[in-house]
Design goal:
Shape: rod-shaped
Order of helices and strands: H
Helix content: over 70%
Radius of gyration: 31 Å
Distance between the termini: 109 Å
Structural class: mainly alpha
Number of strands: 0
Number of helices: 1
Strand content: under 5%
């Protein structure tokens, strides 16, 4: 009877440890997902700024290359 109680207590503590490990892993995955989303947003913003700058430079070069009308 005492051994069965000890076995049940051990099983309960192991089950609790497994549950906590699962919760911690889930929280880690959530943090990783948020981090990846922030990095992706930052990259898209920088790419958009780069595209705008390239378009602006192309328009300026076209304006400078066009001959002036008399």
């Amino acid at each position: 009877m005492i051994l069965r109680g000890a076995a049940m207590a051990t099983a309960a503590s192991l089950g609790g440890a497994v549950f906590l490990a699962g919760v911690a892993a889930g929280a880690g995955l959530g943090v990783a997902a948020v981090g990846v989303a922030c990095l992706a947003r930052r990259a898209m913003k920088q790419r958009g700024e780069w595209n705008n700058q390239a378009e602006s430079n192309a328009a300026l070069e076209a304006e400078l290359a066009a001959p002036e009308a008399p």
